[in-house]
Design brief:
With 163 residues, the chain is α/β, with parallel strands linked by helices. The chain has six helices and six strands. Bound molecules: adenosine-5'-triphosphate and magnesium ion.
């Protein structure tokens, strides 16, 4: 499953599938690329659901070129963690992995070779600008389209809605 596009709802949709899977007793793992601090509400999920593993593989959104080496190292660690998690998960979510590939923190071919090992594990890749070849490979490919977002009118991030 690929969730991409500039509209809000990609990570939110992935969390929706996570909840469904947990509700039927499935094992779920999520690696959040680029994201650093454990501020988002979903970071509380592993405490509540023993079958959910969460790893963060970033230090906040990548804005300066001088952060590239460090961000690349973290993204590669995230991909390695995802490789380990794949075999014991019924669902693996690679949150913001599309963005990490777009920013060239990860090589597309490394992501593709991970996806080839998925066997029966369902995988969700989220993030804007999913590579065309990733979209071609997906079974469910959804593009969220931004019509309006409250941030553009100066709205503040709302806990539980935006993070
Ligand atoms: P969410 O995590 O809320 O589902 P998302 O995964 O679709 O959003 P990201 O690109 O990961 O979107 O951005 C995450 C943050 O940016 C969220 O706080 C979200 O509210 C905000 N955001 C998402 N889309 C937009 C947009 N079109 N304009 C402004 N802010 C946005
Ligand atoms: Mg997101």
């Amino acid at each position: 499953m690929i969730y991409t596009g500039d509209g809000k709802g990609k990570t939110t949709a992935a969390i929706g599938v996570i909840m469904r899977m947990l509700c039927i007793g499935k094992r779920v793992a999520m690696v959040q690329f680029l994201k650093g601090s454990m501020m988002s509400a979903e970071c509380a999920l592993p405490k509540k659901y023993k079958k959910f593993i969460l790893a963060r593989a970033g230090s906040g959104f990548f804005t300066h070129e001088h952060e590239r080496d460090e961000q690349t190292r973290l993204a590669e660690e995230g991909l390695a963690a995802a490789r380990r998690m794949m075999k014991d998960a019924d669902l693996l979510v690679l949150d913001e992995v599309n963005t990490a590939v777009k920013l060239k923190l990860l090589r597309f071919r490394d992501l593709l070779s991970l996806l080839k090992t998925r066997g029966k594990t369902h995988v969700i890749c989220t993030g804007r600008n999913a590579p065309r070849r990733l979209m071609d490979a997906g079974d469910i490919v959804t593009e969220m389209k931004c019509i309006r977002h409250h941030f553009s009118k100066g709205g503040k991030a709302v806990r539980g809605i935006d993070y």
